[in-house]
Amino acid sequence: MLKTLVAGIAGGMATNLTMLLTFRAIGFGWNGGGILITSAMQSQKLVAVWTKLEPLPLIVASPAPIIVGLMLFGIGHAFIYRWLSVAWPPGVLRRAPRFAGLLFFMIFLFWEFFTPFNQFGEPLPLIALELLFWAAIAFTEAFAISAVIERATMRG
Fold first, then answer.
1. Which is nearest to 36 in space by CA: 55, 52, 22?
2. CB 76 within 8 A of CB 103
3. pLDDT tens digits, residue range 74-94?
4. Ranges of each domain in the chain
5. Which of 109, 80, 112 is nearest to 8 (CA)?
6. What is the four-CA torsion angle of 29, 31, 36, 39, rounded to 10 degrees?
C-alpha cells in the first residue's frame, strides 16, 4: 500500500512538472504569449475561455486545487497500474509504455476529441501539438509510477 501511494505521488509530481514544461511554458507561455493562445489559427472561443470568460479556469486563477487534484489522480493511477501491470511482462521499460498508452488513449485522446475539438473548435494542428504534450505527460507519469513500483517490487 505504501509503495503504491509513493508511486502515485511520484506520478502526480511527474504530471504536474511535465504540464508546467509543456502546456504552461510552451502552450500558454509564462505571460500568456504561448502558441496555444497567440496562434492566428486558434479558436477565439478557446482563447476566451482561457483568458476572458469569468470565472477563469482554476489552473489559471488558482492552480493549487488542480495541482493537488493531479496528485490524487496520480495515486489513483498507481493503484490501477498495480492492478493491471501483473498481466504485462515485468520491468519498467516494458510496463511503463503500456501504461502510458492506456493513459494517453483513455484520458487524453478522449479529452482532446471531446473538448478542444468538439466544444471549442480548436484546429487540428494545435490539437496535434497538445497531443504531443499529453503523450509526454502520460509517459512521464507512467514511467514514474512504474519505476517506483517495480523498484520496490524488485527489493521484495
1. 22
2. no
3. 999 999 999 999 999 999 999
4. 2-155
5. 80
6. -120
- Kindly indicate the confidence band of residue 32, based on its pLDDT and cuts at 50, 70 and 90: confident
Which residue is it, cell 498507481?
78
Using a cut of 0.90, tell me whether the model's pTM lies above it: yes
Question: Which pLDDT value is given to residue 156?
Answer: 42
- Residue 152 and residue 3 in contact, taking contact as beta carbons nearer than 8 Å: yes
Rounded distance between C-alpha atoms, residue 4 and residue 1, angstroms: 5
CB atoms within 10 A of CB 84: 13
Whether the pLDDT of residue 151 is over 90: the answer is no
80: three-class secondary structure by DSSP:
helix
Residue 100 contacts residue 77 (beta carbons within 8 Å): no
